[in-house]
């Protein structure tokens, strides 16, 4: 029976080429998108699930509360894991990671000159017990338990030594210090939030001999014993805070607490707590999932619409089969087997296409697509499930209609499929609602991206490059600066702790003596040249001069001049003029003197409002060198700067990064969303327009006679277009109204995540809706033109 | 075998009922070869459809054997329809997408006849109608007479007790028509009950009983 169904279905599909082509193409495109998005989501979802007992591994984060203001940091002190291991019976294991790459890069020398490396961390001896990565060379017992030991990843080992086994036992210099390579581990998988090339023993670090409760610079993880009550564990940690930190807390007037975060929650959780790799907002995972389902729905709708539209053409066949004894179930089976066959074809073609698009998509979306997953038992089961679901969903309604026709009416050719019409209309409305909605969303995302690129940040990011700065270079700075400026390639050079768009350090501040008015402030350690280099505007007071003391040279209780931004003095309740000369307590000094007020500038993502900032004269803390290039060709300027650099600091890498590009990378995830929205809204429109083309074709076929008569009576081509398109345009109008509603909701809620957002204008709506309408009219127009060209003498004769 | 009692079929129009069949009383015995004649619109096809369980929209009683069709459940009616009736149409109504072989096979498929049995039934039929060489041709490749032969083969493949034929020779020239009627005669000899509607008096001569209809009523009923 099934063989017979399939045979007939195959012949039917082959006979009706337009119908089959539209459905196959639509379903294939939808399935490719769906499978690719599913693989992407699967990858993001699988983060940090590869460790044994991952559900018992937690990261410990810290909360600081001061004057009712709470701040969450993803790090905690070095004494924490030690204490947890010793004093907490529920803790099975604990480990510490000190990610040096957030501070600066390291120089690695394996005997063939030094190279700059950015993925370097120190970990304690429990690292491999908690995160059970495999070692390719070396022994796990006792690994990284002594100072100056190093574990490389396989790729890194190959890079430096040709193979993993060659690397073991060799030594390398890290910033001049000698390390012994005691092991080579497998590469960190792409779906682990941990991503390093080098792991050095934390024992090397001086803090390891003397762990403390401050600073909170370390990523600490615990593995709890099975059945541990996490809330009770957090409560125990609160008791620990009282025991060890109670006195300090009372003195400085703030509270702190440690809290757990499941390891699987790091990548997809709160973005301010994601570490090592930037996380993905789980919201986007849901949105992409929804988009995937909508695309499939649009493809399925094409089938439903075309199959019901052409049901009238098949009524004779249905009637005959019924007369010959087919019951409804058997007919249903036959028609469903047609959609099943299409679904099967589409899925097979999709898999082929996915192999072609996987690499472009990886480059585009930045996520490796593991195609081998498709052929695991679960992958195959999912593909089969997808095939059945698409085939059934597409075939169900049309088969129901076709199999339900009454035989004598069907045979008599008197049948009109009336009931299907409104269903078909609603489905068309839905398709175009989704297409327009996606397109509006794309434009909204794009306008916010444009806004962020063009907004006045309060400093100049054009023609400014950043170079890594290392403490070792301090002797060379005056000469470097002089020569660079003298060469005419640079205008100004400044040292700073961070890039101006991403300043991290947090301090507490209060106006002289009054610690009840304490608040959190971002601290930016720079040298006096910074204001010039990135063109920060001074509202009152003066910039630092060379004669001002830097932090390191500060005498006990010596006066420390500082600069504050507008937000900081607003928080203090001062005007710019009042503020000058006021005393404040900030971080390390009780004797800071406000020397100048700078205009607010955006020193972190536009997701946040500009907060208070203090600018210290503290070049010792610098990690970057900011250079304002002279006007002229930047390539030439950089070439002359490189020559000077190579001469003066030959052991430091010269890899300039343009500030505006670095700034743009803050919004990578938004850009990705924008691109993916753009891509998939294009696909949605494509599939929907194809469906529209098919539907119009059937309508045109049914109305060929009518159109021919109209033509004989003198109708012009545009009259014919009007006749054919009016009904559809009404439907598109309904879609547009719905899409506008959706668009308003989307732009409001998406832009809500930005403290600094573009205004919603009418343009994204107008462009998206008009664009889709024009495409739809072109689609209908092409079809109506073809009908119009038919010779009425011929079409009417066949009556 | 078949008994109709006071059977009416009408269309309810705005002011009055328009009767298509009125007061039909008819008994058909097993093995009869019955011909319905009458002008167009006399109700021949409607009566055939009702007899063949294709039309259930009528008033009055229809007994098949000793069971009332109206009292049957949908399932029973459907299985009765499958097992007892075969249909032949004026316009042949073969399925264009299927070959000769597959057209004949279709009713067997709907009756869940096992594959090997299907093959032997179809082989016998093709042999009987001399169509073995044409088994892989599509209907469009056959002449009208040949198509109607396939139609007959298809109709009797399920071994129905009753064969219903609506103008079986209406689209054929006289030579082909005669051939079809001879086939009917042969089937009749083998015991099949045949009810045909026709305009051609000469076709009635092949049968055993002739009923003429006019305006939805039976005018005459005679044995031949």
User: Ranges of chain B with pLDDT <50 over ≥5 residues?
Assistant: none
Structural domains of chain B: how many:
1
* CATH topology tier name of chain B: Rossmann fold
Main sheet attributes: strand count, strand direction, barrel closure of chain B: 6 strands, mixed
- H/I helix tally of chain B: 7
How big a fraction of the residues of chain B is strand? 25-35%
Q: What is the spatial order of strands in the main beta sheet of chain B? A: 6-7-8-3-9-10
Proportion of residues in helical segments of chain A: 40-55%
How many alpha or pi helices of chain A? 25
Class from helix and strand fractions of chain B: alpha/beta
Find the CATH superfamily of chain B.
Answer: P-loop containing nucleotide triphosphate hydrolases
- Please tell me how large the radius of gyration of chain A is: 34 Å
Helix content of chain B: 25-40%
Strand content of chain A: 15-25%
CATH class designation of chain B: Alpha Beta
What gap, in angstroms, lies between the N and C termini of chain A? 38 Å
SSE succession of chain B: EEEHEEHEHHHEHEHEE
